[in-house]
Amino acid sequence: MKLKFSATLGLGALFSLTSMGQQKYPNILCITCEDISPYVRCFGDSVAVTPNLDKFATEGIRYTRMFTTVGVSAPSRAALITGMYPTAIGANYMRNVSQPMPKDIEPYEVVLPVGVKCYTEYLRAAGYYCTNNEKTDYQFSSPLTAWDELGKTAHWKNRPKGMPFFSIFNLEVTHESRIWGRTKEKLIVDPDKINLPPYYPDDPIVRHDLAVLYSNIYQMDKQFQSLVDELKSSGEWDHTIIIWYSDNGGPLPRQKRTVNESGTLVPFMIRFPDGYRKGEIDDRLCSFPDIPATILSLAGIQPPSYMQGQAFLGKYETSPRSYVYGGRDRMDEQIDKQGFVRDKKFRYIRNYYPEKAGYGVNEYQLNVPLMKRTLELLHKDSLNAAQMRWFTAPRAKEEFYDVENDPHEMRNLIYEDTYQAEISRLRQEYDKWVAAYNQNWLIPEQENRSLMWPDGKQPVLNSPLFKQSKNGIEIYSDDAGISIAYQINGKGYSPNHWFLYTKPISIKKGDKITAVAVRAGCKDSEVTEFIAK
Description:
Largest sheet: 9 strands, mixed
CATH class of the largest domain: Alpha Beta
Mean pLDDT: 95
Distance between the termini: 37 Å
Number of strands: 22
Number of domains: 3
Low-confidence stretches: 1-23
Shape: globular
Strand content: 15-25%
CATH superfamily of the largest domain: Alkaline Phosphatase, subunit A
Helix content: 10-25%
CATH architecture of the largest domain: 3-Layer(aba) Sandwich
Structural class: alpha/beta
């Protein structure tokens, strides 16, 4: 069966199946990496060795102002799976499903608001085969209805013949833990040729960690190309939209876990098979909640109205943003709260605990040799003023930076007369964002947990019910906001696969339907069965 692109594929139009006169959605492949700022040569980094991504950039669009909502993975991934601000859905604490946490807070899963789904359910409902290989980390267990396949063997190649696919592959080699985990691997770059940001001391250990980072990025670049080559050899290269990005900014201290440019600015590229806008650089402001909305838009699916993200490509593309927003909360056992708004030139930050320094002890981060060495130099009074800023308490209640001219955010302009009009504008925008989307964000985490887990217990769903009529078998539930997964005669496409219920099911007399109700953050219902009459 031969596929042909429509003339406006680059605008998110659908494929056509010429042999049947039917329509089909485009394949979409997302290749994500972890913990890198735009440390890629095609994004202007002269140290980076990224030949494959550089070539990919000539074939696609580079987005130079893509921002996560906070510089850490789990809250960012909550935004990436829902199209919502993690601050708006109680998912902004890093992390809530496991220790380390403050002693007075037990682990919990975020319960999404009624009606909010993993966006992949909309793709599955439209006929996509959705796979994730293999990271979720959403602040809640991945619902059974989110993916056709989830795990180390999940692959678009496993889909039934003729189905379009949406697939994610996550490359972990650039993760923070690989800084110390790969510290003895061969270095691809010379540590002495690395340009140090002003917030780091010029020290051999510091330079070595940065060289490890660049070397890990080189390995990620090769892994990226392996996935591209696999797509090409399968014959799907010319039928697939490819997206590449990082889940948050850099992995090192004063990068990861911050709301600074170093923690929230990420590289993002997309390639269309028909060459749409190839080689272009797009400087529009984009935010992580925009990515699910855009993927749906590229598939020709209207993003649900509850999504707080805005599509920046495809059939449902919106006007460019004027601002991006975000915030940080507790990081493991360390409590803090900050929020930010950024336009194309300025970044405004509000500190809710101004008595604290930007740095807080994080046991996991102490594994990074650079962190340990910097603390040694701190205790020896060997850091300069720029390097001391992160460790200084108290800090200003508000911060304001001209990131166009001060990308490392070293000079706080909040008290400068020249900038008061711009400060007032961004302060008001920040307040509007909090009022519109974050009514529960400012309450204590324990109270937020109680709203989702009444009496401290995870909500348990009721089993789904069945109704048979001439239209087929209807499956429903008395619980609000649920989705239903089902199998027919003990299997979906395979024994471990579950279908997503979207409409009455036509089956033969004597066939058995097995169903379970799910909702993100809730305990799945008991499995229930129905025999067709």
